[in-house]
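hiii so my PI (J.) wants the whole complex modelled not just the main chain, which honestly fair. so below is everything: two entries, each one labled with what it is. i double checked the lines twice but i was tired so who knows lol
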Amino acid sequence: MSYEDYQRWKITPVEGRPTLSVVIPAYNEEMRIIPTIGAIASHVSSLGMPWELIVSDDGSKDRTVQIVEELGFANLRVLRAQRNEGKGSAVRRGMLAARGEIVLFDDADNSTPIEEISKLLEKIREGYDIAIGSRAARGAEEANKSLVRRAMSNGLRWVVANIFSAGARDTQCGFKMFTHEAAQRLFRAQTISGFSFDLEILYLANKFGYRIAEVPIAWVDAPGSKLDPAKEAQRFLRDLVKIKLNDLKGVYANA
Amino acid sequence: MQINLQQLETMPGTEQAVAVVGLAGRFDAHEVPHVRQALTQAADRTEGRVVVDLGGVNFIDSSGLACLVQGMKYCRERGADQILCNLQQPVRIIFELTRLDRAFKIAGCVEEATTTLAARNSQN
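here's the output for the full assembly
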């Protein structure tokens, strides 16, 4: 890891197409996003590949957009949004704007340490189309997760595993990597803008026959989560039904 | 997160003690109450002469940064200072991006930090 790599990335625009794009969806993240950007920029700059960082705002009402733009990094883009439409909307805009051959989306709270990226990159290099961080796979580590969130996760995982074919045990971890082609096809087909967009993306990935690797990762329940577990569980179940209905109605037929 | 506040060093050229608080792991809001307590105890034992060794910290969030600012103020109110040292690259970059590298005295190692504290002490 070299400080010079970071300094070079900060001031020198990538020539041509980046190998990697990292997308951070952000809504009212003025307190959390700068340390996360610092950690990502430090680590990814040392991987020896041209890369870009995209912060996809979701209509923040605080100074998220201003403080990120003020960084002035050569390879950092901020996608502004007029309205708050949900995490799925912010991720979608970021993924579709990404130019990298490989695209990662990563939460603004650094709940999955960026050092875990190497595990996902390895799977993409092995030929998988999608590599997803998983807190349910054998070998994963979860820290500081509240009992309520743990119960909600386990319940939803049971539903997903037994009723829904998403091709993964942990659909909701905010650390997922795609080839550019898979990202473009899947996020263009996405219809859900809220928290359960991941579920739709994985459902579609499974339906379209993409190869998905579920990779155990370390994960920390970062303080300041904006999730209301009860509300999100209800919305999640509603979205499960919506995805199935979409499929039956042929909404995804032309994707 | 691991917190070690037991180590005491003597400032070069004096008999005065300096507390060295070693931190390791992820420094976020979950850890703030424990670190705040450790920094306060350290400052109370040494009249505010504290070195925080961040060599084992790989990520610090805004609440961790705020905790260190509070620790620095607590020490300065006692006429001394809190010096940070051994910053890993990601943490160093986070300090730069938040411009807190200008607010803190940051040393390369514990020895340099105690020397800096001694120099500050002799000026008072």
